[in-house]
Amino acid sequence: MILNLSVASLNTYRYAKDFTNASKAVILTLGGVMAAGIAYIATLR
What's the pLDDT tens digit per position in 7-42? Predict the structure, then answer.
């Protein structure tokens, strides 16, 4: 499950980085939120 979340969040991050005109701060924030979510789920196990 954690692997699936990691792959999905990485794909979302790369899509946002490559195909949108979002600012770098927004993309880094998005990546940080995804990393925090994965870390939170990992600590629940």
Answer: 887 888 888 878 877 788 887 888 888 888 888 888
Structural domain total, the chain: 1
- What is the spatial distance between Cα 21 and Cα 27, in angstroms, rounded to a whole number? 10
CA dihedral (19, 24, 28, 29) positive or negative: negative
What distance lies between CA 14 and its chain's CA centroid? 9
Residue ranges making up the domain that contains 7: 2-44
Dump the DSSP string for 3-31. Answer: HHHHHHHHHHHHHHHHH----HHHHHHHH
